[in-house]
Design brief:
Blueprint: H1 5-25, H2 27-30, H3 34-63, H4 71-87, H5 91-116, H6 118-126
């Protein structure tokens, strides 16, 4: 079931705070082995997704439904914040956070293009005339 942009902003903000505080509370466990450090980077990429969702929904609520996120400043600032949070856990978590976040951003963009570009391409295909 879909929720409004305002509710999605609140939920994403809550998940962001919970995930950030969880990363800080379990910092010693996340640095205890190499696999846990990589998992810390994965949690940082999840933090990136939640921050990006919160920022996007806040801007959508303020500026209207047609407002789109841009690479700079929204995506860049979200990535910077999530990498900083991962860096508070471990330096390697920062690198893996960046890599996982880039993969997540690719798939978010791909899903967005499939959902929102499909309606635009069908309208342009019907306007072409046969010769």
């Amino acid at each position: 079931m879909a929720v409004t942009s305002g509710v999605s902003f609140i939920l994403s903000s809550i998940f962001t705070v919970i995930l950030f505080s969880g990363m800080q509370m379990y910092k010693s466990w996340l640095t205890s082995s190499q696999l846990h450090t990589i998992f810390g980077g994965y949690l940082g990429s999840m933090l990136f997704i939640f921050i990006l969702t919160a920022v996007g929904n806040l801007e959508s609520s303020i500026f209207g439904k047609n407002f789109q996120l841009k690479l700079f400043p929204e995506v860049f600032i979200s990535l910077l914040f999530s990498m900083t949070a991962s860096g508070l856990v471990h330096r390697v978590s920062t690198t893996t956070c960046f890599l996982f976040s880039m993969v997540a951003l690719y798939y978010i963009n791909k899903i967005s293009q499939e959902n929102y570009s499909a309606s635009m391409t069908t309208t342009t295909l019907h306007t072409k005339k046969k010769k």
